[in-house]
Specification:
The complex is a heterotrimer of chains A (about 325), B (about 350) and C (about 325). Chain A is mainly alpha-helical. Chain A contains 14 helices and no strands. Chain A has helices at about 1-25, 35-40, 45-55, 60-75, 90-125, 130-140, 145-160, 185-190, 195-230, 235-240, 245-265, 270-280, 290-295, 300-330. Helix content of chain B is about 35%, strand content about 25%. Chain B is globular. In chain B, about 45% of the residues are buried. Classes of the chains: A mainly alpha (about 325), B alpha/beta (about 350), C mainly alpha (about 325). Chains A and C meet through helix 1, helix 6, helix 7, helix 9 and helix 12 of A and helix 6, helix 7, helix 11, helix 12 and helix 13 of C. The complex binds adenosine-5'-triphosphate and magnesium ion (MG). Magnesium ion binds near residues 48, 49 and 198 of chain B.
């Protein structure tokens, strides 16, 4: 229990740091942010500028601005979009489910591909399978995600007409009533299997694209972690007991290898979250990533600030979960 | 040799390394009778552990058993299938290692690790159920309970206090001596006919060492089990073993009854090993060590491997690889000088 | 210890400057030979190095390698396919885009942007990161705590998101892209150096230097730094690949160098509209990114194996 508490306390300076960075985003603009924002619209009067400055609180001292920014975030008052003139919260909540669904799917994909591939590669070390696997994984982390996405569309959608190359669900399939916003869950709740299957098909390529670098990374970590574990005495001892090879690998080796895998995967979650922007754009996925890019392009600072913060908080939360998982997996630090 | 349990014939295990082929075990032969305790001694790196692992076919890449036979109850283990060898491992031949902390799986409870061994081989006494019956959850449950009971018995037998409670603990919660007891409990849970103990006490305190050896001796007698004990400690050998095998650079240089080896060594290397033991009676003399270094296994001298460090070596030793020949009843030595 | 004694000898034995230079030169040459012997064993690393070198040379000598101009449209050669397809020709070996610009030409000019940003960002980041890492690891205490909290915070921001947001507020342009990437990039060398310093600090040669009365700065930069250099080189090399990918992503999102300057990411983004018909317009520049980054990563792994055996898995 102490350890969890300690870990939570550890995140406090990070949370403060995040709020500072997010807050300062608007103030990094060379020149006057308001003029830049309004400059987008075309002609504006001095009066308009003053008005907007007041609305954003830019006329107050910096310290005061920061605290009211943090207070607003904590209260759930995330400001108003300058472009859409609706609360930022509504905008974000509307986009969030699509991104969550895609991200979870990508994580699942990367674990399903990465862990078995890494285990296989380690067990068959020095075989051509291992060499090929390692090279493919290296290609995986060297590949620009947008290129992978386009290539997949080119092959599977344009070429083979096998899988859809965009949006969450085809327009001719009636979407299930929104409960969670996650289409897979909603279609199960509604018992709508056509929509479920359709969603799965639409998820396939984006999830694969988003998960690809992560699966390559997972594969590499799994492989090296397994290689480390496999030469430990307890693995030989398990074999000496007469344990089947399969059980030696999974029960004795992988259980131990998972401990470092969890940490490394969590630490690299940032690349998966960042990939959202790219993948959502390529696959016209109506999620948070697209919202960020559009807001940046249109200088819609309130939206940018909050969504960037959501990404950072997600990363922190995922690492917290990973740490708890680490403690569960490792009896030596178990609480 | 009707009494022979294990016979190793001309065993060869080589390692392919960047520097060349390391002949870690190069034509080792010896035999172990039912219930006998055989010691293997020799300097670090001479191939004791590799020999032990080769017997159970546990040599990992880049090592490979390239020749010889390991006859266990007359059957060659080296030509058995992977599945057949699995039924020998743990059930017929068990093995314990030097460092009990690294040998026990850190993420499984001690109880789970003992139970696993018992369940694998039906604990020797559990009914051999048909595979179909084993899928039945009730049968499984019963088997698991029985295995658990048997594990408890084993924990008691190896002298672990409060076994009920300790079964659910993890290896890191045990002391070194207790861990070694757990390992012995796992190894002996299926009453093997042969136990291979690779330096079982090296990592332990002196007092704990004595306790563990005592325990092993007691269990050996009780189970009428043969033991191969690998050690650096000739004192342990004197106390524990019936026979001794002396290895040098991947070969057996001398083998014989423990008294012959300790009191009438024929090979200069054995003699050197004995001289390097500090003795109370000649405290005033400095400890003698064998001069020189163990040769690198991928770059061995011609002829006798020991000649570069041997005080008695002459030209013949560089030309001829000495064979292992009988010098007296049951006592073999591989040295041209000793035979002459 | 040996190392320190060797250094002590340097003080005792008085040698002429010429002798000393000669000795250092000889040692350097033999170090390089030894390095090359180890590096050469890894064939993939050699191939990777060759790819990177090829791209660097093409980027530098771009105007001599191709007769075309990367930005001027040529409406007489619109949407020509690559040479191996029907209708392709050697005039435009990789085809042309919707404005008739030669893809091959744009790729090698695009290499300039990618490689420039990759090396410049990592170069600055290494200087900053190594310095802060040395300070953080060597002094420990409060300054270490502060630097580590800053790193933890920056780690929480997905790299691409932070970079995009920063380019968004700073405005586009080469300089701002470099700044936006530097914002986070320095933490990678910093973390590596710090953990290496923590190990090195406990080593005998540092102890020895301290007992002889060497100052902190001398110990940090003259004793410890040379020992952490190997892993720094390895990490920085691998980081160049990541930075190139980041830059490509930024340009793909329309936040890279301003058009019409060719950059690989924006070429893919522009060509995306024609994916159904002229697929080469977008996929070939992407392939160039893949090849470059793969080359760098292969090289980095080769360097790791050759320079720093203990980093090997
Ligand atoms: N994984 C390996 N790779 C390469 N060579 C190995 C490997 N394992 C063992 N060897 C070689 O086999 C030789 C014998 O090793 P072994 O472990 O059997 O020695 P040992 O007699 O048990 O020594 P110790 O008393 O230190 O346990 C070593 O000297 C080494 O050269
Ligand atoms: Mg050994």
């Amino acid at each position: 229990m102490d350890k969890i508490l300690q870990r939570l306390l550890h995140t406090i300076p990070v949370l403060i740091g995040i709020s500072l960075i997010v807050f300062s985003l608007m103030h990094l603009t060379p020149g006057d942010p308001v003029e830049i924002m309004l400059g987008e619209v075309g002609y504006v009067s001095q009066e308009d500028i003053e008005l907007m400055r007041a609305e954003l609180g830019l006329d107050r001292p910096l310290i005061e601005q920061y605290f009211s920014f943090v207070a607003g975030i904590l209260r759930g008052d995330w400001g108003t979009s300058l472009r859409a003139r609706v609360p930022v919260k509504a905008l974000i909540l509307e986009r969030l489910p699509a991104t969550i669904e895609l991200t979870i799917a990508a994580i699942v994909v990367s674990l399903i591909i990465g862990i078995p591939a890494g285990v296989l590669s380690a067990v068959r070390r020095y075989s051509w399978l291992d060499k090929l696997g390692t090279l493919v994984a290296l290609v995986g982390i060297s590949m620009p995600q947008f290129w992978l996405g386009l290539t997949l569309i080119l092959v599977f959608s344009v070429g083979l007409h096998l899988l859809p190359g965009g949006v969450r669900l085809a327009f001719d399939i009636p979407a299930p009533p929104t409960v969670t916003g996650l289409l897979l869950v909603d279609s199960i709740l509604a018992g709508n299997w056509t929509a479920f299957w359709g969603t799965m098909r639409h998820l396939a390529l984006p999830a694969l694209t988003l998960g690809a670098p992560m699966s390559a990374l997972t594969m590499r970590v799994t492989r090296s972690s397994m290689l480390e574990v496999i030469r430990q005495d307890y693995v030989t001892f398990a074999r000496a007991k007469g344990v089947k090879e399969m059980a030696v690998v999974i029960k004795h080796a992988l259980r131990n290898a998972l401990i470092p895998i969890v940490t490394v995967v969590a630490l690299n979650m940032g690349s998966l979250l960042g990939g959202n922007m790219i993948v959502e754009r390529i696959f016209s996925w109506p999620g948070l990533g697209q919202l960020v890019v559009d807001s940046i392009r249109t200088y819609d600072y309130p939206v940018v600030q909050v969504s960037v913060m959501i990404y950072a908080l997600t990363y922190v939360a995922m690492n917290l979960i990973a740490d708890l998982l680490y403690m569960r997996l490792n009896p030596r630090v178990r609480i | 040799m009707g009494n022979c349990l294990l016979e190793v014939k001309d065993l060869k295990t080589y390692f392919n390394t960047d520097n060349g082929v390391a002949k870690a075990v190069d034509g080792v032969s010896f035999s172990v009778a039912h219930g006998q305790a055989v010691g293997i001694v020799g300097e670090s790196g001479c191939g004791k552990s590799v020999t032990a692992r080769s017997i159970m076919r546990l040599v990992d890449y880049p090592g490979k058993i390239v020749g010889g036979q390991v006859l266990f109850r007359g059957e060659d283990l080296l030509s058995k299938s992977e599945k057949e060898i699995r039924h020998v491992r743990g059930k017929e031949i068990a093995m314990i290692f030097q460092d009990p902390l690294s040998t026990l799986n850190p993420v499984l409870t001690v109880g789970d690790q003992i139970v696993e061994a018992i369940e694998l081989h039906h604990g020797g006494s559990l009914p051999a159920d048909s595979p179909l019956e084993r899928l039945n959850p009730f049968v499984r449950r019963r088997m698991r309970d029985e295995a658990w009971q048997r594990a408890l018995q084993m924990m008691e037998q190896v002298g672990i206090p409060a076994p009920e409670q300790r079964m659910n603990e993890y290896p890191h919660q045990f002391s070194g001596g207790m861990r070694q007891r757990v390992m012995i409990a796992i190894a002996l849970s299926c009453s093997p006919a042969l136990l291979i103990a690779d330096e079982p006490t090296t990592a332990l305190d002196v007092t704990v060492q004595a306790q563990i050896l005592e325990l092993m001796k007691e269990l050996q007698r009780k189970l009428n089990m043969a033991v191969i004990l690998i050690t650096h400690d000739l004192g342990v050998v004197a106390e524990f073993c019936d026979r001794v095998i002396v290895m040098y650079a991947g070969k057996v240089v001398e083998a014989g009854p423990v008294d012959n080896i300790l009191f009438d060594p024929q090979h200069p290397y054995t003699a050197g090993l004995l001289k390097s033991i500090p003795r109370i009676e000649d405290r005033h003399r400095p400890i003698q060590t064998i001069p020189g270094m163990v040769p690198e296994l991928y770059n061995l001298p011609s002829g006798c491997r020991f000649r570069t460090r041997c005080p008695m070596a002459d030209v013949r030793c560089a030309e001829e690889d000495p064979p292992l020949v009988d010098v007296s009843h049951d006592h073999q030595v591989s040295c041209l000088q000793a035979i002459a | 210890m040996d190392k320190y004694l060797a250094r002590a000898e340097e003080f005792v034995i008085t040698e002429t400057l010429q002798q000393k230079l000669l000795r250092v030169l000889r040692r350097t040459v033999s170090n390089i030979q030894e390095f090359w012997r180890l590096y050469r064993k890894n064939h993939l690393a050699v191939i990777g190095g060759a790819i990177v070198l090829a791209f660097i040379l093409l980027a530098i000598f771009a105007p001599w390698v191709t007769p075309h101009d990367p930005v001027t449209p040529n409406f007489r050669a619109i949407r020509k396919p690559p040479v191996w397809m029907k209708g392709g020709s050697w005039t435009h070996p990789l085809g042309t885009d919707h404005l008739g610009r030669d893809i091959w030409t744009r790729i090698i000019y695009g290499a300039r942007v990618s490689l420039f940003i990759g090396f410049v960002v990592v170069g600055f980041a290494t200087v900053i990161g190594v310095t802060l890492g040395l300070i953080s690891g060597y002094y420990g205490g409060k300054i270490d705590a502060v630097i580590q909290r800053v790193i933890d915070t920056l780690l929480a921001f997905p790299y691409l998101i932070l970079a995009t947001a920063l380019v968004g507020v700073l405005g586009p342009g080469l300089r701002n892209i470099v700044l936006a990437l530097l914002y986070k990039e320095w933490i990678y060398p910093c973390r590596v150096v710090r953990s290496e310093v923590l190990v090195a600090k406990e080593q005998e040669y540092v102890e020895a230097a301290r007992t002889v009365g060497a100052g902190n700065r001398h110990i940090m930069f003259r004793e410890i730094l040379p020992n952490v250099l190997a892993s720094t080189v390895v990490v920085s090399t691998l980081r160049v690949g990541s930075v190139i990918l980041m830059e490509a992503s930024l340009s793909f999102l329309g936040l890279g160098v301003e058009p019409p300057t060719p950059a690989w990411g924006s070429m893919v983004a522009e060509g995306r509209r024609f994916i159904n018909t002229e697929w080469w317009v977008s996929t070939l520049p992407g392939l160039a990114i893949l090849l470059t980054v793969l080359g760098i990563n292969l090289m980095g792994e080769g360097l790791r194996d050759a320079l720093d055996p203990k980093l090997r898995e």
